[in-house]
Each structure stands twice: as structure tokens, then as C-alpha cells.
## 1
Amino acid sequence: MKSLLILGAGGFGHMIQETARLLGYEKAVFLDDAVKGPDVVGKCCDYESFLQQYDTAVAALGDNNMRLHWTEKLMEAGYHVPAIIHPSAVVSPSASIGNGSFIMQRAVVNTHTIVEHGVLINSGAVVDHDSHIGCGAHIGLGSVVKANCSIAPKVKVEAGEVIFSTRRKIDGVEDRNLEDAIYAFGFGNRCSYVKPFGAGHINETYAVYMPGEGGDELAYVLQRVNSNVFKDPAGVMDNIFGVTEYLRNVIRREGGDPDRETLSYIKTKSGCNYFEDSEGEPWRCYNFIPDSVCYQLVEEPEQFYQSGSSFGHFLKQLSDYPASKLNETIPDFHNTIRRFEAFQVALKRDLKNRADSCRPEIDFVLAREKDCGVLVHQQDEGILPLRVTHNDTKLNNILFDEKTGKGLCIIDLDTIMPGLAANDFGDSIRFGAATAEEDEPNLDLMHFDISLYELYVKGYLEETKDVLTEAEIGSLPWGARLMTLECGIRFLTDYLQGDTYFKTDYPEHNLIRARTQFRLVDEMEQQFERMQEIVQKYTK
């Protein structure tokens, strides 16, 4: 069977599908990052997975840079990348047409013209004799390139005069930067409406609705990233694309659904990982995963077991991913020694004269200076290896399958970095095995629930016990203690500095938060042997 794999399932892609059928291709299917349909078999980044099944492929992408980029990627991968010439086009036998170029309906390419690879010569265009069309160029509808012309690579020759596109009104879009972002990701011409989305407090998040068979559907999540928090957006997005594209291949090998079990981030029309608006702020976009739910707090013990299983499986899937390739976008994020040193500086300066109001909490931290180095020293000595870590392993960063109640997908990947397994494990325990919220003023309500701890350990080690080293497994209880201590130190440091980092609702807010964390640390210390025994129980 003569088959064709087409990268790009937009309008141009469907034109190429029709042309391919006229040329005798019996089967023509798509890879596309955004469009879904019966003929769409994967994302563009999956192209290598289909080489055995479809040895012939083209990149039917309207953007010159993207078309050229993917044409060259397909050639490098070993695909046969033919020129697609519509039967109604007139092409001189002496013309040279490069790989992956498209000559559309009633276009004319005259004698001795050279058309390099990845070129689009659109319907009705005329390229006269002895012209040279550089790779990735676009000769627009009905345009004329006269004899002996040279068109540079990736240049677009417009149809007649240059006509700038006008933008349609999109409901819910009042901000020009939001509008620019929607068009940058290619949704402007079809988007139904946009509205704020989610409960996050760091990034500005919107739901993008597109027309579907049953009416408007939530299709994409668009975010303006807070560059005050994430000062290296390029590094953040490099990490995210690297990890999620790697996960797609792992999930496919496991027999799972890569469109539901990891976030699928979308590049801009020009092929960038993110869009930068007029104010220099970064925007990124990913597919919405339907039939999923997110929980802000543990409502049932089973959810915390599923949380352990989900984050454990996430670590296992990425166990062979080279952590050294990741950007450290927030240096020393979980370096507890550095956190203790920052606390000492804040205590010495006491900028707001608050030290006298928190002496017991200060003494609590000072008494645990040696503890702060336990995991850091093991990392420095090579005892604990660096892994791909999430670094914000709260329950609300997991999507659960709405029908089965099982963990489905890890989200909020901004803090993906090299780190220790114990840190991710510990942050989950700090958040999920507490009996009250972290700013509960009544400490009598805040306790460390060791039964919830055991549920998480069970789910986590069922996935990771064959991946983690013996030293890593032994470090897990320390991870719970130290991530909780570190969080308390950060709250107390911010309180001493005058609340410059964490958002507060009243003057003692950060101090209250520190107290809850120190209560948890104290109870973990009292039950530490039992915590270690539980870990050993589930490694057998």
C-alpha cells in the first residue's frame, strides 16, 4: 500500500492529503500537536516512532520556518520526503524540485527553475524561467516570479500587494497581549471564547474554547508565566518540552495514552517553545485533558495512596532521562544548608524588629543546623544520585481520572529540575500527611498523620523500589523531615525579612505557617524510627 505521513493537519495539510490521493497514495494520515481527528495518529514529535510504518512523509506546514525545520528533520530521520505536485500544475521537465516542496493547483514552474527543499508554490502562482527559489520560501497565491529572479530562503512572496491580516473579535479577550498570544499559537481564526481558568496564584491562566462536534469545547490551557518567579523562562520551557516529549515515548511503550498521561505542550506557529508579548512576558500553551479532576486537599485516604503511586511512577518513567541535561532554573532550590544560611542572615539583620516575637521558633531552627546538611552532604559525596524531580509534589499537581479515580497525569512542571528523590517524596508528605492546612493558627489541629504517611510510602515504593538505590530508599524519611523543616525555615525567614516572598493576608501569617511546619517536624522526629520501619516494610 502506498502510504504518506503528513506533519500538520490544518487546512494546508488537508489540501496535501487530497492531492496525495490524486497522486495514488492509498493512505494519508497526520501528525499534529493541536488538531485531533480520526486521521491524526500522534504529535509531530512522535515522527520517529512511525518510520517503520510510514517510510514516506512530508511537512505540510504553512509557516516557512516550521515547514523547513520539519522537512529537514524528516530527511535526517531517514524518511523518503517527496515533492508533492498537484496534477493540474505545470512543471517544466528541466525544473528541479527539491524534497518536501509543494506545487499546488494550476501553479506554473518554468524552464530551468531551481526550487530547493521545503518550498510552497501556492495555487495559481507563476515562477518563470531560470529563477531560483530558496529552501523554505513561500510563493503566494496568484503571484508571479519573473525570469532570472532569486528568492532567498524562507521569504514569503505575497499575493499581489502585501495585505496584513485582520483579527476577529474573540469573546473574553480584552487584553492585547492575550490576543497576541492566542494568534501566536494559531488559535485566533477559530477560537470561540477565552476565560480565566484554575486556582493558581503564580501564573495567569486561561481556558481556550474551540468549536467541536457537540459545541464549544475546552481545548487548550494558555498561561502567562510570572517572570518575577521564573526568571529563566527559556530554561523552564526547555526542561518542560524535553521531559514531556520523552514521556510520550515512554508512555507509548507502556501501552498508555500519551495524550492523556502527560501534558502536551504546543509550540508557536513560528516553532518557539513560548511566545513573548509586547511587555517581554512569556506565554505557553498545552492541551487540556478532558474527563480529569484535581483535588486541593486529601478528601479520602485512597487519594493519597494514588498520589504516591503517581509521583513514584513519574520518577520511574524518567529514571533513564539524563538529569544533567536539565536547566537548574531556580539554583539551590532545595539546598537546605543554603536555606539555613539565608535564615541566619535574616535573623542577624532583623529588618522589621520581629525576632523578639518568634524566639521559640528561632531556637527550634538553630537547634537543627546539623540536620540541614544530612541530604546535601550525601548528594555532594555521590551517595545520593541526581534525578529528574518535580519539586512541587503536592496533591493538587496531579490530575485524577474522573471515572476511575486513579492518578492520571502530573501537571505544573515549572519546577522540573535535577534533584533528589527524597526531596520530592518529602514535599508530598509535608503537604499530604498533615491534618490541617499550613496556615492553621490552632496548633492543636495540626498533626503528622503516620497512617497517611504509610499509604503514600506504599504507593510510592510499589512504583520505585526497583529503581531507587538502597541509599535513596533510606533517605526517604529524612526527606519528609527536611522538606518540612526547610519549608518552615523559609516561612520564618520571610517573616523576619518583612514578608517579601510569600503572599500574606495579615502580619503574622508567615509566622503561623512556620509554626505549623515545626509542629510537623517535631512529631516526625518523635516517630522517626516508625517512619523508617514503614519504608523498610514496603521494600520487601
Note: The first helix runs from residue 11 to 22.
## 2
Amino acid sequence: MNKLDAKIPMGPLEDKWKNHKNHMNLVAPNNRDKIDVIVVGTGLAGGSAAATLAEQGYNVKAFCYQDSPRRAHSIAAQGGINAAKNYQGDGDSVYRLFYDTIKGGDYRAREANVYRLAEVSANIIDQCVAQGVPFGREYGGQLDNRSFGGVQVKRTFYAKGQTGQQLLLGAYSAMSRQIGKGRIKMFNRHEMLDLVVVDGKARGIIARNLVTGEIERHSAHAVVIASGGYGNVYFLSTNAMGSNVSAAWKIHKKGAFFANPCFVQIHPTCIPVHGTQQSKLTLMSESLRNSGRIWVPKNIEDAQAIREGRLRPENIKEEDRDYYLERRYPAFGNLVPRDVASRAAKERCDAGFGIENNDTNEGVYLDFSTEIMKKGREAAIEKNISNPSEKQIYDLGKAWVEEKYGNLFVMYEKITADNPYVTPMKIYPAVHYTMGGVWVDYNLQSTIPGCFVIGEANFSDHGANRLGASALMQGLADGYFVLPYTIADYLSADIRTGAIPTNLPAFDDAENQVKERINFFINNKGTHSVDYFHKKLGNIMWNKVGMGRTPEGLQEAIQEIEEVRNDFWKNVKVPGEANAMNMELEKALRVADFLELGHLMAIDALKREESCGGHFRWDHATPEGEAERDDDNFMYTACWEYNGQNINESVLHKEPLVYENIEVKQRSYK
């Protein structure tokens, strides 16, 4: 049985990372070209890691299922990236970023990792500026910042609503330089289908060429998994449709513990579901909560009239609007953390005040009229316009909003056909990010020696809820500034190992298992498509393992997921061939893993008898409807060990969470 050892360094919190780096083993520059490293995933975490390791001199093999690393889902991040630089002079610091992250995660994250994340955050911005990332700037040329949920300072750096894209292009340019030098061998349109473990160590992967269908063996001295999160277990989410859990789940089945799978983030500002044939959801950046005010009608009759098309929201008077976040959480208002904002929206819609006519009445407004007029008046003063008309004020304010968020407004109008400068945006919570993932120690190594996991694929630094703009921060911190140090400590023992051969029995076994599964899907004479089963799973997950959970609902979910899973293996139909491009086969392999993961998520949610962050149990709520933690019994990371095909027999290990540098208390944003 694997033993959990987080390998947290001794000493004061602020010295742990510095002292740890000072005492780790190194690989000398002249020995690095003797070592091969596989990186699976080329988003911000994987791309930055591959580029940095190659620049240091290692031989890197990078894999992505997209046709280019530029298409990694990191490109979809809109709002920004956090860093404790305190450019605004409003009291920010490394400690405050650390504290906000721990508090935002509802005290379910590891202190040492979070502090390190805050500590290296400032370096990320310098690195990206040097790469040419066009961050927004103030009139004096200094990098600008904006606020995000869960904090009371401005620490989020941004590039309009395209921050993820610009950061990914920075990482990709660094990768491209190393590809040109021959230090990175890039495998586009390849998907990892299994991990190869030799003598207890990760020594390679089995991959499928998604164009030709060929099954390939690739060896290395270490394997880095940077394949993102598992939000698509819900079918409808803000993730790209190809985003999946397979790489992380394969290493879980080879011995890597999976931690806190029930910790899923519901994002409050998604465009509502509009039909049963929808295949994914579109996110509107959290940065819009800086300037937008969230509301529903005060009168249920007005909500009904809006849903029926008899009343326009812009015609509802100010006194008839319920700005419920400002009412319930006056200290933070519209900038409460995502889990808090999401549950508040659900509560209003469940009470009958939802404004979207989609059978479920799920929708609230994100309104920019107040900000437009406020910024318009400021601009009129700046321009020395005396007695400006309402139209002049509106036009000036609209110009300010357009400069700040213009591309997001264009995107919204193209999708909904509503002009958000006039008609408030319709939003509703949706599955977005996953805080759970593969368990890693302080060195980012899983319970399989030589298998490292970074970015959203690991159980992360975010506890039970991630603060907005921290995903990009963690991905780049892991890839640029943490993994390159910690992996060297492991690889220092491999400088005389030599190349890992791919004709070992472990490679034979792994390849045979992959081929056996592929042949099953191609030859199974089922009657239903892969999407048929994925949608059924997603419906169970959203309704019973979603925003609000109950013991009864979770027990039902466990049973229902088992039934769907059994039906899947009997009745799934995969057209096409194995030895060719076959997207249905790709989906079948991924959905098979989602079915097992969804089962474990429900078990984990049932076992955690408390509410914390994104995990909300209605049987553990305060009278005001807030999350009620149980620190005496559940202040731990739940680490699940795979124990065979019966997910019910997974073994739970607990990593206690010890807080020595902050006071643990009930979260309050009021």
C-alpha cells in the first residue's frame, strides 16, 4: 500500500521554499541531455514546463491531442492572472494573497503549497512581460490591475478579455524556440492512453496517433501530466468539448491517488443553457463582475412577465430590482467568491425569481447601466464638459466599458443576439473548474515515483474553491518556477541510467490493454451513441452531484451511475475503424473514464459530511443558507486509492491539513 508523505519542508513558512531549493539535488548542465522527460498536455502548465525543461537542456517529448499547442483550453481563460505585486498600493502582499487563497478555498488547502504559489506569483508577471504578453496598462505605462471575487485588493493582471490566449502564446513561443533547437519533440494529435510503470517508476506512456490510429510507445525517465481538469464529466460545462480526465485517470489506475474529486467549481457568470441539444456552455469572464451588478426582479410577477416576454428588464425601475449579492454580502457585494455567488443565484432562481425561459427558469441579470453612467460622468468631468446631457454621459461611459471589455460584449451579442450595453446580460452558474485531481506532494510528484502532475490536473493549491484568476497563476507557477527545480531532485539519480527501452514487458502489457479496449469499442454491437451515455451521466451529475447535494441524492447518483456504466459497456456503438481518424472512438475512451470518475466523485461527496467551498451539502448548511464546515472531522485531503473496477471499493487515505500560520474561522464575506 502506498504511504502518503507530503514532503513539506521544515522551518518557517516564508523560508520553506527557499531552503528546500537550496538543499535539493541537481542535474549538472552537461548531464541533462542524457535524460528524457515526457510532458502530457501543452496548456499553460504543460507548455511552460516543457519550454523550461528544454531550455535547461533536458530532452522533452510533448504531447497534445489538439492539432497545435496553441489550441489548449488555457486559451479560453478571459479575465486575468493574479500576482502579489501591489502595483495599486492598496495593501496587497505575498501573505495577503496566501491568506485570500486559503480562505477562498474554505481552509481545505495545504499551507506550504499555497504560500509558495503566492511567493512565486510576482515572477510570473515579469516572465510574461519579457515574452511580450500585452498586459493592460494605465495611462502612465504601468501594468494595470483589476479586482476579482473573494478579495478586497486589485491584483489581477489582464489582457482585455483574452488573458489566457496571450499567456498561452507566450508559453508557445518559448516552446517553439526549443522545438526549433531540437530539444522539444512535439507530438500533435496524439493522446495518452496509459502510463507505463517499470520497477515501480513511471517510465513512459502508450499514445494513440489520432490521425492514423497507430498505437505508439514512448519512454522517458519521468512523466509529467499537465492535462487539465475533469469538468466535462458533467457533459455541459465551460470546458472545451475535448477536455477530459483520461491521462489523470490512467495514472490513478496505475497507483496515483486521486484527491478531493468532489471539489468542483461552479462559475456564476455563464450564459444560461438554451436547449437540450447544446453541447457546451460559454463563460463570460468574472472580470465583468468588477463593473456589472447582479440582480433579479424584486417582484415575482415581474420575473414571470420577463420570462413570458411581456416585460423588458431595462424597463424595470431601480427600486424594483433586487441586487441580492449587495444585499446579502455588503462588504464584498458582487465580488464574493464564485461558490458563494453561484449558490446565491440558484437560491433566487429556485425561489421563482429566475428570468430565463428555459423550462427551469435559470437565469439572473448582470447589468452594466450603473457603471456606464458612473464612468460617463467621470469622463465628462475629465473632458471639462459642463452640464453634459444624459446621452453624452451614456456615450462616454459606453466608450470606457467598450475599451475595457469590448471583445466580451461582442462575443455575448453574437451568441444571444442581445446588446449588453442596453439589455443586461443573462447569466447562470455552470461547471467550470475542478479543484480535485491527482494527489501530489510538495515536489508535485504523485504516489508513483517519477510521475509528476501540474496545473489543474493535480489536486491543486485551491482547496474547496478556486479564487478567480488563480488558475493561470498556478499553471505557470508550476511549469516555470516549481517543477523545473523539484523534478531535477528526482532525475539526479538517473544520469547513468541510459535510455529507457520500449521493448520491456511493462510496455507490452500496457499496449495490449489499450488495444484490447479499442477493439472492444470497435466491435461492440451496441445501439446507442457515446453522447447518449455522456448526457445521461451529465444529467445525474448536475442534478445530484452539482451545486446542492444531499445524502439521498448522492446515494441515488451512485446507483444510477453504476446502471449507466453497465449499460454503456453493453450497448455503446462506436462507428468507424480503429486504424484511422475516429472521433467517436476518442470520445468512447474518454467517457469510459468519466463514468468511473463520476462514481468516485459521488462517493467522495457522500463521505465528506460537511459543506465547504464548492462542495455544498444541504444537510450541512447554516440557517442563513451558508456552508457549514466540520473542521473537527473533515480537515483533511481525501486521497483515494484505486482498488479494481468496483469503484465502491476504492480505499480512502487522509492527509491532515495543519494550519500554523493563519487562524481557521468561518468564512464571511458580509
Note: The two ends are 45 Å apart (CA to CA).
## 3
Amino acid sequence: MARVPAAVLNALIRLRRSPRALARHYRTRRPHPAVELVPQPHPWGRALGLVAVVLLGAWLGLLIVGNVRTPVGPMNTTMTLRPSLTGGTKINVSPLGALQLDSHHAPVRLDVNVDQLDPVRSQALVDHPERLSGLQDEVAKDVEHGTLDLALRSCVAVVAGATALGLAVYRRPRRALAAGGLALTLLAACGGTAYATWNPDSVLQPKFSGLLSSAPSLVGNARSIVTEFDVYQQELARLVTNVTKLYDVTSTLPAYQPDPTTIRVLHVSDIHLNPASWKIIASLVEQYQVNVIVDSGDTMDHGTAAENGFLDPVADLGAPYVWVRGNHDSRVTQRYLERMKNVHVLDDGRAETVAGLRFAGLGDPQFTPDRSEKSGAQETQEAAGARLAASLRDWTTAGKPVDVAVIHEPSAAREVDGSVPLVLSGHLHHEETEVMSNGTRLRVEGSTGGSGLRAVEGKYPDPIEASILYFDRDTRRLQAWDSIELGGLGLTTAEVSRHLPEENLPGATRTPTPSPTPPSTPSGRAP
């Protein structure tokens, strides 16, 4: 019997299958539908996205909580870390400006804001100047403590900010923790870079901005200030001690203590357009309870109408203002002051009673804004002084004697000797006092404006000078005076000294005051 081929046999077997099996067989043989694959992000893209989330979260964390308020010496400061491409340290002294130190190279910058001076700690330095010797170490410790506190707080702020933003973006705790860990790693790297590049000598070469940009020209080379800090603090301690002692002495001087009924006169002169003078004068008026201000001239520099606005603060100084014209003050200046409230302009021997004292004065006959001397200037001044002396004698004859005469030039003031107890002048830009041969006391005031722009002409700046004169209200005679001297441009010195007339010194015999000599011929001036 012939054998059936295997291929035929298999075909027959397939034909005998049931229709359901055949259907199942063919269903399994049908091709599967195509599956769509979602493209996965590139690993570098995922890394860049995570870095962006970390940097943004860290920056937001620093903005919200990354600052520390800490005292540094007598100052209250706020220290902050900020992202930066250049690094360094920026010290903000509002509103004067800022100074930048090239202290380190790292992608973070240290900002130090000087908020205010603490009155308690500042007063402690004034009361105990010996503490200045340890001020440098105290400041170093304060800065170190504040920096450590800031580093810890910044770590917390950076990690918390990056973790919170990572959780908000990825919504997976593992990704959020990875963001926080990366933030901490980056902060540690920044700290290590800052530590490795730290430059302690950067304080010797600061960069100034704002109003502080003029600081190097005022305070000198920064390197010399740092290297000579020991000398500086010794001198500062001596200054604070001396000023404190002077104020203590003037307030408890046994020889003369002004009582509340004393008439107090503030004598100023030669302001020469220095706007700082008005604040100084207002402060002296308040501190000494001044009754009247006397200005013996040269308030202006060129006497132009454009300068008149400089005089506006006179109305708000808190005391009546008695004024005479100097050789830098014009008639335009005088007319502007005559229209101001509470200002008493003296000229042509005119007399006025202000705050219980009778004043008379004469404007300077010279007008030399270019500081030139005209021929015959001395004779002109002496003639002006003679006219003022004649007016003083006329007032005495009329029964209205003058207590204080005011004229700008000392050479003119000498002509009134014997006609008035006291004459006030200026012009010389330094203080002088003398009793002239006929008994009149001459008080020459220094420059209350520190000579104005002339302060920079000499080797050393001219000081700012003024004086407080104390008068007995009953006799209207000078009892004492305080000379006040402040350091000129760029200096911070202060001296206060009290002086007594010879007749008021303990144990001295009182000398008679000058009795005005009546004029030999009437001058024709109406009292």
C-alpha cells in the first residue's frame, strides 16, 4: 500500500477542524494594530530643567527669608545674600550711597544695609570713651556672628525654596528632594568658592557710589585710615572726652551760671553763602535758648539778586535777626532782608530795641565782592566808624543809650571806643577780643560759614565759629560769653569755652563802664 505524503496528511487534518477552531486560528494569525510610542525627554533636558527649578527656588527662598538683622558696633544692620555674577560685598549707607568691596569671587553677593545708629550703644560710647579701644574687636565679633547666622538661615532658605518649587513643578517627592539636595550642594560650592577667594585686603580699596563718591577726597586714602586706626581711635577718644568735659564745665562753672532771665545773644558773621551755617545757627538757638541773633555782615559772597534765595531760612531760625551790611553784601541784599519778617537791618546809625537790648549799626561803606581793596579804604572805614560814634553819642544825649553797636570792619569799630559798652564786628575770619583804651569792649567774630568757598584755599580748612553772649537783663551789660568752634570742611572737632570779663572774675574790682562823651556839636541826627 502506498504511503500518504506528510504534507497531504496535514492538509486533511486542517480541513477536519471545526469552523470555530478555524476561526480562532485565523484570528490569532491576524496582525496586531500598531502601538504609538510617546517620545521620552532627553537626559540633558531633564537635568537643565531640574537646575532651573533649583536656581529659581533657591532665589525665591533667599528673597523671602534669607536676611539677618544684627548689631555691628553702635549700628543696626541687615545682612542679606543675593545671587550675583561677580560676587563681592556691598555696604549700603542710605541715603548717602554705597561702597563696594571686592571681597570674594562667587555667584553670591553679601549685602549689608546700615539701618540706623542705636542711641543706647552710641550714648554708651560717648559716656565711656575708653570703650573705643575695644570697638574694633567688637565689630569683628559682631560681623562674624552675623555672617554665621546668615549662612545657616540661607541654607534653610535655599533648600526649602528649591524643595517647595520642585514639589510644585514635578509633584513627585523624590524629584522635590533631589532639587533640595542639589540646592544644598550648589550653596556649599558657592561657600567654598567664596572662602577660597576671600580677600581681606579689599577693605583698603573700596569703590564709592552716590554721595559717598566724594568720600576719598574728604577723608584721605583708605589705606592710611586702616593702617593708622590705632592713632585715629586715640584721637577720637580724646575728642569725645574733651568735649564732654567742656560741656560739664560750662554747665557747672562756679564763677558764672546764667539764669533763665539772662538775655542770650548769638553772634555770627561772615557766613559767605555756606548753607550749612543755617542748620548750625538753628541748633545753637535751640540748645542755648537764644533771644536774638546778631549778624555782623558778609552773609553773601557777591551780593547779586540771584543769591537772595539763600537768605530765606533766616525767617525760620527761631529768634529775631539783627543784621548789618558787610563788604560782600550789596544794597540789593539789604533791601531783600528789610522786607523779611523778624529781621532788623541796622544802617546809618539807626537804633532798635530787640529782646531787651538796644542795638545800633552802620553798613560797610565798601562793596568789594571781588575782594579787592580800593584806594583810601582805611580812611573810608575810619570815617564810617566816626559817623557811627556820633550817632551813638546822639542817642545817649537823647536819653536812649545804645547797649551794643554793630559794624562789619574792626577798623571802623575802633572809632566808637568810649561811646558804647560793647561793639561787635567780623571781617577777619578769626576771633579776637580786646578792651580798648576808653573802656569799650571789641568782639571780633570768626567766620560762621568757615570762610565759605575760601575754606579750600589754604593748607587747613577754616573753622566754623560763633559765640553766645550773656547779658544781665537789668544792667544790660555783658556778663560772660561762650566761644564755639567747629571743625572746618572734612573735620569733626568741637570746642566750647566760657570767658568772663575781667570785672566779673572772682575777686576782681568792678571797673566803671565807659560813659559816652556828649558831642561837641549837634550832628543833626534825630534820635
Note: The chain has a mean pLDDT of 76.
## 4
Amino acid sequence: MTFKEQILEGIPEQLPSVKPFEKEINHAPKRKAILTKEEEKLALRNALRYFDKKHHKILIKEFKNELDTYGRIYMYRLRPDYKMYARPIEEYPAKSKQAAAIMLMIQNNLDYAVAQHPHELITYGGNGGVFSNWAQYRLTMKYLAEMNDEQTLVMYSGHPMGLFPSHKNAPRVVVTNGMMIPNYSQPDDWEKFNALGVTQYGQMTAGSYMYIGPQGIVHGTTITVLNGFRKIKKEPKGNLFVTSGLGGMSGAQPKAGNIAGCITVCAEVNPKITQVRLDQGWINEKITNLDELVTRVNKAKANKETISIAYLGNIVDVWEKFDQENIHIDLGSDQTSLHNPWAGGYYPVGLSFEEANDMMANNPEAFKTEVQKTLRRHAKAINKHTAKGTYFFDYGNAFLLEASRAGADVMAKNGVDFKYPSYVQDIMGPMCFDYGFGPFRWVCASGKPEDLAKTDAIACAVLEEIKQNSPEEIQQQMADNIQWIKGAQENKLVVGSQARILYADAEGRAKIAEAFNQAIAKEEIGTVILGRDHHDVSGTDSPYRETSNIYDGSRFTADMAIHNVIGDSFRGATWVSIHNGGGVGWGEVINGGFGMVLDGSKEASTRLKSMLFWDVNNGISRRSWARNEGAIFAIKRAMEIEPNLKVTLPNTVDDAIIDSL
């Protein structure tokens, strides 16, 4: 069968042959057994409902084996035979170009070069799923191939509920992931209900089909590292950044360190993903011996090198060894998946990777104990370095949150706050998000590198023109992004689709998008798909990350994210998504995203202006109401630009009046 025929087939009438388990592929760890015997039966019933009754006797044994062996029913037999990657948009069988664009993005999320565990349909973060099983993938792609521009596909946590009548200006797809009743949003709830096949952890851009490989976080991390060094008034060159994690998102750190110009040491326990990053060129060197690492770092410091070094081993050993050897760390952080601490997101020190995986699956309580002991030891080592002048920040991966729950010494004297800031509190919030700057991205649906080069040039020209008249408050942000986009081709950031990211405000996003749309109309470039990371100005309510610099008490509310996705849906987004969970953990965040297809039409021009303006200024207005000075400046400027925007502004209160009570 051809690729198009396989897509249109959906769930096949005749079962495909059983596929061998490919050990060379990076697979998800076994999930812990959490279902009762009756719940296991329910999980099997739930899985079998995708198939004709004639297949049930064969599949029930197979699915029971998967549940026992892996803790989940992935339906490996249904994995397609064709290569998984983002094809040029014309190669998809589709009645709707918008639907074809979504198919392209789904396949990009599952590309072996992009996805962390492609056979388990997990894009990044250890559990960030596009779908829960391969039947969902096949059925979704079939629906997208069949849909027209007056239908909307409804996605319930990976399950395609079906095509519903709508209209051409409605979203083509509406996605929800993990939207639990609040009392059922603990980590074990995810384990249970995901094993039952009724919900999934969409992370952020995994379950909303907008991941573009580690390039997205490379940019954000580059800005974070640059501004981190600015904060401590040091040049990156010759100075040391220490962190950990080389997986789907964290793998960007060494590349970002190279772009920023510092020495980066990044520890990782998984040998497969470490080798992948080395082969990709995202790290310069791999070292497996601590003494050798010390020698290499001292040499890099002496020569003021720009270099990224992966240490294959546990990060705790690195922090402790550098303390013993008096190696000064300038910037320190951590980007292991501590939103997922008990299922492969963070590994205990003193155990091999294989030993830890075995304990995780077969003795989860002991594994949890070892993880928490390691977190206490990790924090103790960090505290020794910060006492010597290291600037440590939480990278929004729930490191401080889980360390505090483990009883580590990470709390401030007031017993409420953490002793170290999150990077949003100190860096990204006041420097970027409050002013409306966030991770705007686009994908060239033609798949042509020359189209990406043209869009880079268009975006750079737009930014340089805007910068000429930008106020002083945002000149640094503009300059950083112009420098980024000029070096984008040289830094070879593309993994998977022909995609690009840069931080832009509402003005920049709309003007860049309009310039793209005009170029498409003139047939200078092909179709472009717009999107953003959920880690943005408006899309995410996350008290320990995206909204950690909201100090009016509302950082634990989720009104902004919900309003964002509702507003995007009727202002012109091609697809919208809203998730429970994300980079800081299940039950800890609500986050939403969008995708928008530009086809050169007048309708696309109208939609982009309406939606992109709202998508950014919704968040600025919320940050302004929280009394963030940068956001007050930004929303006042936005109201001057757009007469139809009228936002409630806060009145400040003198501290003396409050203190007089």
C-alpha cells in the first residue's frame, strides 16, 4: 500500500503482522503496575473497543502482555510501516489544506529524530504523549484526511471523538489533554487513568502537535543563559554553566551554552540519548570519568573556551566533585524531568541506569525513597556552591518543588518561599514575558530549506525595521532576537521539520506573519504554519514557572490559560489545545497552545491580526493587573496602538499605608 492508502485505511480491516521490539530505539521505561485486576479488565475492554469483534481473541492476549510488560497498552502491532517524518504538505491525502498541515505536525512530533520514545508515541519529558496508542494515531490521521473546512475534529486526551459540523472560520481541531476533575490530579491518578486508556499527559507542545525538536528550547535557554550572565555581571566566555538532562527538551542546554559562548557541563544518565546528542552535534564532547571531567573543565577555563561537555553519569556526582576540587560554577541549574520523578524523570545516585529502571518498575516505593535521598544530597551540594558565589536558578522543571517535598534544604527563612528563584522570576518574567516577548514559531510546510531561509530573511528584516522605532525598554530584547535569527542557519538548529523560533511581542508576531502571508500570496514561499510554545506570555498558568513572577496571589489560578484558548478559537486559530500538566507536573499547571495555517489569503491575514494580538495581550493584561511594572508599560503601549483595547489598570498602594495597620 502507498503512504496515502495507509493513511486512508485508518484501523485496518485485517490486522497487520506483529512487529519485533526494536531494542535500538529509545523506549519509555516500564510504568508501575497500579491497576487492580478489575481495572486491568477495564483497560483491556477500553483498548479492544477500537477493533472489530473478530480480532478480540487475538488482541486480548497481546494487549494483556503489553500491559504486564510495559504498564501500558501501546498497540505496537498497529505501528505504521512507513517512515515517520514531516512530509511536504502536498503529499498528504486531504480535502482540507488546514487538516494536511495538522497531519504534517503530528508526524513531525513522532519523527525518530524528534521524539524521545517514538514507538510509545511520546515526544519528550518522559511522558509527553501525542497519543496513548497506535489505534488513536491511525484513526486521527484518517479523520484528518477525510475532513472538510466545515468540520472540526474533537480530540479527548489522544482519542479522536469524531468529526463534528462547524464552519470554515472555526478551528479544524480542538484538543484537550488530561483535563481531570481537580481532586483526581495527583501523580498516581495519571498513572491509573493513563493505564486505563482514558487520559494522557500531553505535556505542552507534544499533545498539541507543535513541537519542533529541541530548537524551541535552545532559543529560550540561550536567552536565559545570556541574561543569567548579565544578571551576575559576567561575560559568558570562559565561565561555567552546570546543569543536567539531555532528553527531548533538556537536550537543548549544551547547544544553547555554545551559542551563548560559555563552558557547559551537562550530566545525563541515559547512554542512548547522550550518544544521540553527540551524533547530532548538540554536544562537543562526552566524558565518563569525573577526574577526566575536572581536568577538561580546568583546561577550558584556562583557555576561555566555548565548549559543551556531556558527563555520562549522575549530576549529583558532578556537583560534589566540583566542590571537592574547588571548581567555581558561575551559573547552575537542572532540567531533568522532575515533573515526572517516579517514572524516569530523575534518577537516583549510586545506581546504574539499568538498576534504577529495574527498581522503578519492580520496587517503586524503594525507587521513590532513593530519588528523595538523591534530591536531598543534590540540594546540599548546590548549597555548598552557592555559598561560594554560584548563581543557581530553578529551570521550571519542579526541581525545588520536589526537593522541598523530599525534605531538602531549599526553603527560604520565611518557610514559604524557595531560597532560589525560578528562571521566570528572575530572568524571563521581568525581562521578556511582562513585555510580551515569547516563543513565536513557524514551520515551512513545503519542507524546503530554501523556504526556511527566505522566512528567516523576512523575519530579520521585519525585526530590524521595528527596532528602529522601539522604546528603550525593549531594545535589548529586539537586539537579542535579531542576533538569534541572523545566526539561525549557521547554528544548524533544524531537527525534523523546517522550523524556526524567535522571541517576539504582539507587534513582531503580527508583522512577521503578515509578511509571510504576502510572500505566500506572491508564490515566493509555500504554506507556513504558525504556532508558539505554551511556555509563553499568555498560554500557561503555572505557579512555579510561567506565572511564578505573579505576586498578587493569583498565580495559582488558571483563568488566563482558559481564556487564552477560548479567545484563540474564535479569533482564527486553525487548531487549539488545552492541557493539565506540563513541564512542572500533572496537577501543577494548566497550559494551552494553538496552530495557524497561512495560505496567502485575505482571510488568513484577518485571522492572524485578530488572534495574535489577543494571544499576547491577554497575558500582558493579567501581568499588568498583578502590578508588574514592565507589563503595565506594555499594556499601556498596546492600548495606544489599538483603540479598541481597553484594559483595567491597577492603582498602587504605598507600603507605608499597609505597614501602618
Note: The chain has a mean pLDDT of 95.
